[in-house]
TrEMBL record:
Domain CHK kinase-like: from-to ranges: 161-351
UniProt cross-references to InterPro entries, sorted A to Z: CHK_kinase-like (IPR015897), EcKL (IPR004119), Kinase-like_dom_sf (IPR011009)
Originating organism: Anopheles merus
Name of a matching Pfam family: EcKL
Protein's name in the database: CHK domain-containing protein
Length: 491
């Protein structure tokens, strides 16, 4: 039963799914007796929940009357670790109440055995940062909810977190990529999350923010990153057989010796414009959604902060583009979405009274250009599993030729080929360009959005019959747009 539960848990993300079964089989075979000796049902008792709720409510007279504990498939898919759902009845201050909780037994997503950084990172985000960041947004109830509240944490007998169960607040899980309108709701919340963390650099918490460095790429290679490198190498072999793609395959082969170093540099934030607290594993299975009566997204919250790190916002933004947005949204709205992110980022900084330097839209576009390697990695290593048949997922694991053949089939899928063509042209080819040309490309993307806004505003003035200098400017800019040129000096 435990194996069935763990296999279900590994489905929560493309990355976790790809590594989870392979690692879990090793754990269960090696440590079956060890796990049996730590059966959670032997210590997840009323006594533990009473201790947790006394600490949370500050009511020393609180008494737990009943605990209903269960492993729930949906909760498992949502929280990406061994999960128990608990309904606790208790008596506090003369009243009988009940509370629904999630008990998360922390397990590393990138190693076969959990490491202390995984637990420390997630605990620190819940305990030290989310509450501070939410408080900064004041009375805006919808905006200030970034994730579930931490009720209790301990590392004995195994590291575990007790969180509020947001299912009781009508938050549900989703298992699909989102269209443009729903994606914007998620993006706005992400911008608020990033902006409030960025503003913490002016507070006393600034010195401890750098400690959150448990990102996907770490200095010590994990099983997960090694699995990614194996997929990256395999894809380069497949790509060399595509007609007209030999030069791209050769470029990918040249990248392989520095694969780890390139990824680690991005997650350390080296050479980037500014840093924020990144979720680090930002995809639709690591968030909950509140839907309206038409099943449209009204609000969202995040969880599963095991890979959170302090680095460029480009990390979460690239995850957003590929694992939140559907393809149509990403291809047609990419620049507009990045502009929306910047607008909400700066608005949030203004709301919290931030007085320091505010990153520009150009800063964000430049960081996305500098993180181009990560975009290629996400597309090659994770996107193919969006098209996988999960009834055959066990074929993905190991080094057997049958598993390699299955992955080759995923890489040769028509939809994946179309996605990769765009990325290879934009990212792999541009890495051969001088840095000045790459900077100008980022500047051009920023200018393109800015000019579009000018033309839209001018059109509204023309329709209303009002005179405004922007109309003349728009007529001047229109000539450049028709020629595909963008006068950077004007902006």
């Amino acid at each position: 039963r435990k194996l069935d539960a763990e296999l279900s848990l590994s489905r929560c993300s493309n990355f976790s799914f790809a590594v989870g079964v392979y690692s879990l089989l090793k754990i269960l075979a090696r440590d079956r007796m060890h796990l049996a000796n730590k059966d959670p049902t032997t210590w997840l008792t009323g006594q533990l929940f009473q201790k947790a709720l006394i600490q949370y409510t500050t009511d020393r007279g609180l008494e737990v009357e009943d605990v209903h504990l269960a492993v729930h498939g949906n909760a498992a898919q949502q929280y990406a670790s061994t999960i128990y759902r608990a309904c606790v009845s208790y008596r506090s201050r003369g009243k009988t109440e009940s509370i629904k909780l999630i008990v998360k037994l922390v397990a590393s997503k990138v190693n076969s055995l959990a490491d202390e950084l995984t637990f420390d990172t997630e605990l620190k985000v819940y305990r030290d940062y989310l509450s501070k960041m939410e408080t900064m947004l004041g009375d805006d109830v919808k905006a200030c909810k970034f994730g579930p509240k931490l009720i209790y944490s301990a590392d004995d007998p195994v590291p575990h977190l007790i969180l509020e169960d947001l299912a009781s607040q009508q938050f549900v899980h989703s298992c699909k990529l989102l269209d443009v309108d729903d994606s914007k709701i998620v993006l706005i919340k992400l911008a608020q999350f990033h902006a409030t963390s960025y503003s913490l650099t002016n507070t006393s918490a600034a010195n401890s923010l750098d400690a959150l460095n448990n990102g996907l790429f770490k200095q010590k290679p994990s099983e997960g990153v090694k699995f990614m490198l194996e997929n990256f190498t395999l894809f380069a072999e497949v790509l060399s057989q595509w007609d007209g793609y030999a030069k791209y395959a050769e470029r990918l082969k040249c990248i392989q010796p520095t694969f780890m170093e390139r990824g680690a540099a991005i997650y350390r934030g080296r050479g980037f414009g500014f840093h924020v607290l990144n979720h680090g594993d930002f995809h639709y299975n690591n968030m909950l959604f509140k839907l309206d009566q038409d099943r449209r997204v009204e609000d969202t919250v995040f969880y599963d902060f095991q890979l959170s790190c302090w680095t460029t916002p480009a990390v979460d933004l690239l995850y957003f583009l590929y694992f939140i947005c559907n393809r149509k949204t990403r291809d047609s709205q990419r620049h507009a979405l990045i502009q929306l992110y910047h607008q909400e980022f700066t608005r949030t900084l203004d709301t919290v009274g931030y007085m320091g330097k505010v990153p520009t839209l150009l800063d964000i576009n430049c960081d996305l250009q500098r993180a181009g390697f990560l975009e290629v990695v996400l597309a090659i290593c994770f996107v193919p599993f969006l098209f996988a048949d999960y009834n055959q997922t066990l074929n993905v694991y190991g080094n057997e030729e049958e598993a390699r053949a299955y992955r080759r089939a995923l890489y040769n899928g028509s939809q994946f080929k179309e996605i990769l063509h765009t990325i290879l042209v934009l990212r792999v080819r541009e890495k051969s360009l001088p840095k000045r040309d790459r900077f100008l490309r980022a500047t051009q993307q920023t200018a393109q959005v800015g000019i579009g806004r000018i033309l839209e505003k001018a059109q509204r003035y023309e329709k209303s019959g009002k005179h405004h200098p922007i109309v003349a400017l728009a007529q001047h800019l229109h000539l450049y747009v028709e020629q595909g040129r963008y006068p950077l000096g004007v902006l």
